[in-house]
Amino acid sequence: MSSPHIAFIGSGNMARAIMGGLINNGFDASNISATGRSQAKLDQLKTELGIQVTTDNNAVIAQADVVILAIKPQQMQAVCLEIQAAVEQKKPLIISIAAGITIPMIQNWLSPTLSIVRCMPNTPSLVQCGASGLFANAACNTEQKKLAESLLQATGIVTWVDKEHLMDAVTAVSGSGPAYFFLVMEAMQEAGVKLGLSPETAKQLTLQTALGAAKMAQASDVETTELRKRVTSPGGTTAAALGVFEQQGLKASFELALKAADNRSKSLAKEME
Question: What domains can you pick out in the chain, each with its CATH number?
Answer without folding.
Answer: 6-170 (3.40.50.720), 177-269 (1.10.3730.10)
